[in-house]
Specification:
It is built from 4 helices and 5 strands; from the N terminus they run ααααβββββ. The protein is of the alpha+beta class and 147 residues long. It has one domain. A hairpin with a 2-residue loop joins strand 1 and strand 2. The longest helix has 45 residues. The radius of gyration is 24 Å and the shape is globular.
Length: 147
Amino acid sequence: MYLPERETRVSGRGRRITRGLSLCALVLALAACGGTSEREVAASAAATAFETALSGGDRAALCAALAPGTRSEVEDAAKKPCADTIGAQDLPAGGKVRSVDVHGRQARAVLASDTLFLSQFRDGWKIIAAGCRPRPGLPYKCSVKGS
């Protein structure tokens, strides 16, 4: 006896579940994209604030913008508080932010004349390396960096 293939029919309830799951996947994908964009904006703002402090000679703001490990390295190298030594660092005026790449809690801000590396902390994005120059085939060389 010949039995025709069964048609796969999705009930009304099954269609609603499928649509609901598709909608959830779409919302999660859009939320993930928005999260990256928000982090890029925040990292860019931190880089801009650092450059503003640098161009204005605001040593206290420069030190506040540094990640804790970077600030410690600056202080340990000079055996002085950050605000007393940050001005002596070889930090170029970076200019405007050209691009920001965010990867999780790490970011790279490429400026007109500098590259900054940042990390996201509880209180926002902080500079982990500044005065960074690319070297073909090698890691960046940075005048200020943490361990």
